[in-house]
Amino acid sequence: MTVSGQYPVEIRPVNDVPSVLDEVLGVYARAFAAPPYARAEDAVNQFAEILIERHIHRDDFRMVGAFSADQLVGLAYGYHGGPGQYWHDLVRLALGERLAGEWLDDAFELAEFAVLPAYQARGIGSRLHNALLSGIPYRTAIATTIRDNNPALDFYLRRGWVILRDDFRFPGAVHEQAIIGRALRAD
Fold first, then answer.
1. In the annotation, is 156 catalytic?
2. Given 28, 77, 119, 156, which residue is catalytic?
3. Of 186, 104, 185, which is closest to residue 143 (Cα–Cα)?
4. For 150-162, what is each residue's pLDDT tens digit?
5. Which residues, 6 or more positions from 72, have their beta carbon under 8 angstroms from its beta carbon?
6. What's the pTM value of the predicted model, to 2 decimals?
């Protein structure tokens, strides 16, 4: 059955990332090819290396995928990060100890979120977001996104995320980032 010329999209866990790595890389490459990202092939290769060598081994790694007729069309993943990890340490330093203690000490770090351009603005991102964060045992979720990428930042803000800092820049990065957080449970 098709809906508006497209297959229905099913959101489900991706439990064996290496088995779908080519599809994951394809979604990542196409989702981030256009400005403001404009990520080239070397960025896709770097992403693959980080995902396989580091991220999938992190505590509570979780990936969800959006599948249309068994083709991956979107993904979101994260994990529980900690001291000694590149992103975690840079964000902790940028936030300062008070905010870092509040937002990072018991957090799920949303690492990547991508939907193929042809499938964007159809509610798939919302479904991925909700599935990824459902049942997370941490107090908060935290992420970074390009500050001037209003559609992505607006997406998060509409889902209860707040801007913790909007002038963060990774070493060597072109774009300033917004560090964003979302309360998952009250303590």
1. yes
2. 156
3. 104
4. 788 989 999 999 9
5. 20, 23, 24, 26, 27, 65, 66
6. 0.88
Cα torsion 125, 175, 82, 52 to 10°: value is: 70
φ, ψ of residue 49 to 5 degrees: the values are -65, -45
Tokens 């290396």 correspond to 49
Q: Which residue has the tokens 């159809």?
A: 122
Instruction: Report the interhelical angle of 41-53 vs 21-31 (nearest 10°).
Output: 140
DSSP 51-114: HHHTGGGSEEEEEEEEEETTEEEEEEEEEE--TTSHHHHHHHHHHHHHHHHHHTTTEEEEEEEE
The 10s digit of each residue's pLDDT in 33-89 is 765 565 666 677 777 878 888 888 999 999 999 999 889 999 999 999 999 999 999
- Domain ranges in the chain are 9-183
N-to-C CA span, the chain:
45
Closest CA to 87 of 174, 184, 171, 175: 171
**CATH architecture label of 9-183:** 3-Layer(aba) Sandwich (3.40)
CA distance 119 to 82: 33
